[in-house]
Amino acid sequence: MSDAHVGTLEHTHDEEHVAHQFDNAQQQYESGNLGMWLFLLTEVMFFGGMFGAYAVYRTWYPDAFEIASRTTNIPLGAMNTLVLIVSSLTMALGVQSAQLGKRKRLAWMIALTMFFGLVFLGVKAAEYSEKWHHQHVPGLNWNWTEGEGGREVQILFCLYFAMTGMHAMHMVVGVGIMTWLLITALKGRYSPAYYNPVEISGLYWHFVDIVWIFLFPLLYLI
Amino acid sequence: MSALTEPRHYTSELNYLNNGWTLKSWLLTKDHKRIAMLYLISITVFFALGGLFAAAVRLELLTPPGDLMDAETYNKMFTMHGVIMIFFFLIPSVPATLGNFLVPMMVGAKDLAFPRVNLLSWYLYVLGGIFAIYAAVQGGVDTGWTFYTPYSSTYSNTAVIVTAMGAFVAGFSSILTGLNFIVTVHKMRAPGLTWGRLPLFVWAHYATSLIQLLGTPVVAITLVLMMLERGLRIGFFDPALGGDPVLFQHLFWFYSHPAVYIMILPGMGVISEIVTCFSRKHVFGYPFIAGSSLAIAILGFFVWGHHMFVAGQSTYASMVFSLITFFVAAPSAVKVFNWTATMYKGSVSYATPMLYAMGFIGLFTIGGVTGVMLATTALDLHLHDTYFVVAHFHYVMVGGMVMAFMGGLHFWWPKMTGRMYHEIWARISAGLVFIGFNLTFFPQFILGYMGMPRRYHAYPEEFVVLNVMSTAGSSVLGVGYLLPAIYFIYSLYRGEQAPPNPFRAKGLEWETPSPPPTENFLTTPVVTEDAYAYAEKEVKALV
Amino acid sequence: MQHHIAPTRMYIGVFLALAVFTALTVFVRLGLEIRSFTIAISIAVVKATLVILYFMHVKWSGVLTKMAVVLAVVFLGILLLLTLTDYGSRSWQPKIPGWEKHQVVQ
C-alpha cells in the first residue's frame, strides 16, 4: 500500500518544506518515517548485544545476580519508570498537537517532555552517586564487602552501568533533540501539513522509553 | 579524435562533474554521485595502504626464518592489513561507490532519500579511517582484525582502543548507507518500476543494507564493551572479572559473519548486470537470483558459530551452526548456476568487465566450496587457523568481491566519468589479476592442508616452494591492480569521450548522458519493461 | 496526507494502563516479595506493546512499519536464542570413558 503512491503527484500540501529529491510531501513524510523506524531497528540490535550478555551471565550466575539486584534502589527506579512514562505521554500529546495545529500546546508538550527527561537524568545521577558511595562501581571504585561471590556480582554491576549508561546517553541525545524541537516549534515551523520532525523525534523518545521499560525489571526487580 | 586535443571539460552541457569546481563544492556536496566519487578516492587510498601491509606480510614469508621483521611487527602487519581491508575497503567498496552512484539512478530517482545523511556517512568513514591511520602511526595493533578478548582487552600493549574506535565509527557510516538505500528503494522508485522489474544490482544492495542495519550495531556495542573492559577494567569478557571470552566471539561473529555477505552480495549484484549485458540475454531465473540475495542475507545470521568450532563452544551448538552453514551455500550456488545458464547460448563477448565477471564466477565457486569444507566440524578441527582458511576467504573476498568491484568499475567507468579507458590495457590487467591471484592463493590451500598455521612469521623449510610461489603471485597481482590506477587516471585526461551507452546495456542509468546531470535524469523516467530485456530488443531488430 | 489523529482520551488511557502495570510489577516484587523473571518480563512486554501500538502509532501504520517492528523482535530473538544454544548445551558434553586419568592435576 505504501508503495503505490510513487506515480501520484499531489501538490495540495504545504510544499515549501519538500526537499529537491522528493516528488511531494507525502513521499518525504513516508521516507522520513521509514528512515527513523529503520534507525530504531539498529538501536534495538545495539542494545541487543548487551541484553545478550545479560542473558548469558544471568543463566550462569543467578545467585550473584540476586545479591547484586538487592542493592539497587527499587523506589527510585520505579519513580524513574513513571517519570519516563509521563514524558512519553507528553511526547505523544505533542505529536497530536502538531497534527491538530495547536502550536502553543505543542511547545508546552515538548518543554514538558524535556523537563521529565531531565528529571529522569537527575534521579539517575543520584543513583549513580549512591553506588559510588557504596563502592559499587566496577573498575573505578569497587570494593565488595557484602560477602562471597564478588567476582560474579561484579559482572551484574558492569552490565548495570553499561546498560543504564548507554540508556542515559540516549536520554541526553533525546533532550538535545527536544531542545532543537522546542526552538523550531516556537518559531512556528510545524503545521498539520508538515510535522515529520516532531513525529520522528517522538518515535526516538518512545524507543528510549521502551528500553527503560525492560531495563527496570531486569536490573532492579529480578 | 578531438578528445585528444580538447580541454578536459569541453562538453557544454551541465553534468554533475562540471557543476562547480571548488573544493567546497565537493566536500559539502549532497549529490550522491559526487559522494560516490569521494568514496572511490578514499577507498582506493585504503586499498593501497592495506595492499602495502599485505606486501610486507608476503615479503616476510618469502623465506622460512623470520628474518625481515620480528614476530611482533609481523603481527601488526597482518592485523593492519585485515582491519584496513575489511572495515575500510571491502565493506564500503561496492555499496558506497558503485551502489551510491547507481542505486538512485537504477530506481530512477533524483538522489538518495537522505542526501545529508549520505554525506555524513562519508565523513564518518573518513573519521574512522583517521583513527585507523593514527593507530598505525602510533605503532600499530597486533590483535588480529577480530580483536579477540582477553588478549585485546587485557594483554596487548598496542593501540587497540584507537583501532577499535576506528572500526566503530566506520560501522556507523555503513549503517547510514544501508538505511539510505532501503528507504530509497522502498519509497523513490520511478513510475512503473515494480519490485519485479528492479535490476538485480538493486536487489543485492537491498539485501546488503538489511545486513548492515541488523548486524553492524551488534559489533558496535561489542567493541564498546571491549574498549570499556580495556580502558576502565569494567569486566564483560575477562575470566578474571567473571566474564566469558567466548561471549565476545559470539557477539563479534553475529555481525562479522553476516559482514562477509555485506562484502560479497553487492559484488554478486554487479556480476548479474555484467553477465546479462555481455551475453545479450535476459537473466536466467530472475526471481531466484533476487530471492537468493534475501535468503543469503537472512540465513547469514544463523551461521556465525562456525567460526567457533574450536573456541570452546558446545559441540551441540557447533552441529546446529554447521548444518545451517550448509543451507546457506544453496542460495549462493543458485546464483552461480543462474549466471552460467544466462551465458549459455548467449552471444558472449569478452570485454574487460566480462573477463572480471567470469573470473568472479570461477574463483567465487572455489571460495564457496572450500567454505562448505570448513563448515564440516570434523574437517575444521584439522583446517582451523591454517592457511587453508586464509586461502578460502581470500578466494571469496579478493577472487570474489575485488574481482566484482574491478569489473563493475570498468563497466560503469564511462558512465561515471564520461571517458573511455584503454580496452587492451584493461584486458591485459584483468589477465594479470587472474593469474596473479591464483598464483598467490592457490598454493595457500595446499600449505594449509599440509598444516601451515596462519599468523606466524616463520615456517619450516619444507613449505618454502609454495610460499615463494605465493609471494611471486602477489607481485603479479600488485601489478594487475596498479595498471588500472594508471589507465583510469590517464583516461580522465586523454580518454575518448564516452557515449551514453557504450556497452548497449539495459537499465535506467544508461538512458541518461555520461556523465549524468546533477539530478540524474532530464525528465522523470517511466519504466515499461522488465530488467534485462536484451533478447526481445534484438529479436525485434532482426525482424 | 491522511493520518490517524487519536483523541487525547486515548493517550491518557494508555498512560494510565502503563502506570498501573508499573505499580503492579513493583507490587509483585516489594508487596508479594515474588522475584519472578516470567512475571516481570511479561508485564514489560505488555507495556512495550502498548507504547509501540498507541504512542508510536504502529496500530495505524502501514505494513512496512509493522514489518520493521517484527524484524527487530525476530533478529533480537535470533541473537539471544542462538547464543544461548551454546551456553545451554555446554553441560551436555559427554565425558569420554576414562577421562579422569588424563586430567591435569594442578
What can you tell me about this protein's structure?
- The complex is a heterotrimer of chains A (222), B (543) and C (106).
- Chain A is mostly helical and 222 residues long.
- Chain A has one domain: Up-down Bundle (Four Helix Bundle (Hemerythrin (Met), subunit A)).
- In chain A, α2 crosses α5 and α3 packs antiparallel against α4.
- The N terminus of chain A is likely disordered.
- Chain B is mainly α.
- Chain B starts with 22 loop residues before the first helix and ends with a helix.
- The N terminus of chain B is likely disordered.
- Chain C is mainly α and 106 residues long.
- Chains B and C meet through α8 and α10 of B and α3 of C.
> Which runs of chain C of at least 5 residues are low in confidence (pLDDT < 50)?
none
Regarding CATH, which class of chain A? Mainly Alpha
Structural class of chain A: mainly alpha
Helix content of chain A: over 70%
**SSE pattern of chain C, N- to C-terminal:** HHH
- Specify which chain pair forms the largest interface: A-C, 53 and 47 residues
- What spatial form of chain A do the alpha-carbon principal axes imply? elongated
Question: What is the CA-based Rg of chain C, rounded?
Answer: 23 Å
Shape call of chain C:
elongated
Reported for the largest beta sheet of chain A, the result is: 2 strands, antiparallel
**Whole-Å distance between the termini of chain C?**
74 Å
- Give the low-confidence spans of chain A: 1-13
Run of helices and strands of chain A: HHHHEEHH
| Residue-averaged pLDDT of chain A | 87
Short description:
The complex is a heterotrimer of chains A (222), B (543) and C (106). By secondary structure, chain B is mainly alpha-helical. Helix content of chain B is 68%, strand content 0%.
Task: List descriptors.
heterotrimer; B: 543 residues; mainly alpha; Cytochrome C Oxidase, Chain A; globular; disordered N terminus; C: 106 residues; 2 domains; 3 helices
List the helices and strands and how they pair.
The complex is a heterotrimer of chains A (222), B (543) and C (106).
Chain A: H1 25-60, H2 62-70, H3 74-100, H4 103-133, E1 136-137, E2 141-142, H5 150-186, H6 196-221
Antiparallel strand pairs in A: 1-2
Helix pairs in contact in A: 1-5, 1-6, 2-5, 3-4, 3-6, 4-5, 5-6
Chain B: H1 23-27, H2 32-60, H3 71-106, H4 115-137, H5 151-155, H6 160-187, H7 200-232, H8 245-279, H9 286-299, H10 315-343, H11 352-375, H12 377-383, H13 387-417, H14 423-450, H15 464-494, H16 534-542
Helix pairs in contact in B: 2-3, 2-4, 2-15, 3-4, 3-6, 3-7, 3-8, 3-13, 4-6, 6-7, 7-8, 7-9, 8-10, 8-11, 8-13, 9-10, 10-11, 11-13, 11-14, 13-14, 14-15
Chain C: H1 8-31, H2 37-55, H3 63-89
Helix pairs in contact in C: 1-2
